[in-house]
Amino acid sequence: MQHTIRIFGIANDFVSALEQKQSVSINDGQKLVIGAGGALANTNALNTNTLTNGQFLIVGDNGLKQSPVVPISGITGVNYRFESIWKAQNTGDVGTVRIAWPAGLSELRLVQSSDAVFDGTDTATNMSINTQIVMVLLIIMLM
């Protein structure tokens, strides 16, 4: 499965003077927002979180629909998932990352899987108690 659509990320590279602490893809249809640390700000410049030199978290999806329409079972509290699946590449151990989505859905979970099969062996994090994190995402994490 390709995850080469709507690619974006956060990064710090001293040589190129890149300090992107929060990001969203400029491509139509991408709703996911990510940011370093525990909170997002109105702009990258106002984000007070930090990344160290050489830390990169790049995210892309498979280009499918970003709404919970695919039935899923075996994961407590999760009944549907997006058709869209995100793949993340973490270089330099980015650490805590804020994940946000436009408001409108409730009882949201972030499901992290090391493969494309989402089942009871995967980690599901309740995101509904965090007011800035507002959507179910399925992410294949590569270490």
Explain this structure.
By secondary structure, the chain is mainly beta. 0% of the residues lie in helices and 40% in strands. It has no helices and twelve strands. The protein has strands at 5-13, 18-20, 22-23, 33-36, 55-61, 68-71, 80-82, 86-91, 97-100, 109-113, 123-126, 137-142. Strands 2-1-5-8-12-10-11 form a seven-stranded mixed beta sheet, with no helix packed on it. It is globular. The protein starts with a strand and ends with a strand.
Please outline what is shown here.
The protein has about 140 residues and is an all-beta fold. It has strands spanning about 5-15, 20, 20-25, 35, 55-60, 70, 80, 85-90, 95-100, 110-115, 125, 135-140.
Q: Please state the structural category.
A: mainly beta
Parts with pLDDT < 50 across at least 5 consecutive residues: 131-143
Domain count, please report it. Answer: 1
Strand fraction = 35-45%
Q: How far apart, in Å, are the first and last alpha carbons? A: 18 Å
**Sheet having the most strands:** 7 strands, mixed
Rg computed from alpha carbons, rounded to a whole number of angstroms: 15 Å
SS element count, helices? 0
Give the strand line-up of the largest sheet: 2-1-5-8-12-10-11
Shape: globular
